Amino acid sequence: MRKKIVAGNWKMNTTLQEGVGLAKDVNEALKGVTPQCDVIIAVPFTHLAPIADVIDQQKLGLGAENCADHAKGAYTGEVSAAMVASTGATYVILGHSERRQYYGETSATLRDKVALALENRLTPIFCIGEVLEERENGTYLDVVKTQIEEGLFNLSADDFSKIILAYEPVWAIGTGKTATDDQAEEMHAYIRKVIAEKYGQEVADNTSILYGGSCKPSNAKALFAKPNVDGGLIGGASLDAQSFMGIVTAF
Length: 251
Ligand code: PEP
Known about the structure:
By secondary structure, the protein is α/β, with parallel strands linked by helices. Helix content is 45%, strand content 15%.
């Protein structure tokens, strides 16, 4: 059966020293509990190797927030999937709406990134989600379906089974405006149906679909209680060990 997962997305926050401190705090807090979900932190590239050295990855998974769409070579400033993997990290967030919006990531570049991530044994946390206008004009289900089809449906069923999906309505990210648990459930159930139509019910039932967008300790329980919500991708609330743990223990 599919995994329950809570993953933090630190974005471009924390200096190296602050980040190592935060990772240590989360790692320490996890020693005192038996979480009913997998716990992951996705951190800036610069933080990966030092954090890999101080956490127990049996209890706290480590991931990057992006990787390059080329394997290696003359791409100044880029960080490849192989480089990420060489730090000891095992996850990578791909297609976050901030990358689609500010860095022009398209489904074509994302297909390349997913392929490279998988080649390097990184588990992609693949983000999808509609903007406010698409929510309001009623096209949100179609928009998300297209993102999944274009970004992922070139994969074999075997490779698709290695993907974690994160539904993040863009209007809810960092805005304090959470999707209601019913809005999240409607979309998550729809995503599972779209996957079932392509890869069959078993693959769909085994795919973890996380919710992201202003998820916090106070609303996590209700969201995670929905049958198709398998956890959360957490931005702001993952920057404080206590609030992140408040979400982890919502399961
Ligand atoms: C995110 O960007 O992945 C996210 C969910 O952010 P926040 O929790 O801050 O809305």
